[in-house]
Amino acid sequence: MGNRQERLALRRQALLLKIQAERGLMTIHYQELKESMGMAGGAASLLGRAGQFARHRPLLGGIAIAAVLIFKPRRIFSFAKSALLGWQTWRSLANVLRGIRTDVFNTTNTTASSVNSSKS
User: Fold this and answer.
1) Separation between Cα atoms, residue 22 and residue 54, nearest integer Å
2) pLDDT in tens, 9-27
3) Where are the alpha helices (DSSP H) in 57-72?
4) Secondary structure (3-state) at 82
5) Which of 101, 114, 91 is closest to 27 using CA atoms?
6) 93 by DSSP, 3-state: which?
């Protein structure tokens, strides 16, 4: 019976080490993704400011859009297609990041509570 308990304890220890390594790897990947998303955030804020400018000065916004449509209509469709693809990618990444953040938070709380309960 003691042999089985030792094996289970060793397996538990190995699994805890594996979990810790995976969390570290996930943290590294999260940081890399967060850094790369910083540029997307800057572009989004720039577009937001441009949208606010257009809302405050609708005549200038309308003239700018009309000028672009008149002179480069193909670019508008290309830009709209790229914007749609970027928005869809952003939504997908936001859902993935939300899931990762939730998983990391839940596993951190679970590990902390198991460590506290094992100390008592």
Assistant:
1) 47
2) 999 999 999 999 998 888 8
3) 58-71
4) helix
5) 101
6) helix
| Measured distance CA(119)–CA(37) in Å, rounded | 40
Phi/psi at 76 (5° precision): -60, -45
Q: Which pair of tokens denotes residue 88?
A: 């869809």
Q: Report the sign of the C-alpha dihedral through residues 57, 58, 63, 67, in that order.
A: positive
Whole-number Å distance between alpha carbons of 82 and 11: 49
- Upper half-sphere CA count for residue 76 (Cβ side, 13 Å): 10
Q: What is the pLDDT of residues 98-120, one digit of tens each?
A: 888 787 777 766 665 555 555 55
Block residue for tokens 């400018």: 53
Distance CA 63, CA 69 (A): 10
**pLDDT, mean of residues 35-46:** 76
Distance CA 63, CA 66 (A): 5
Report CA dihedral (67, 78, 37, 92) to the nearest 10 degrees: 130
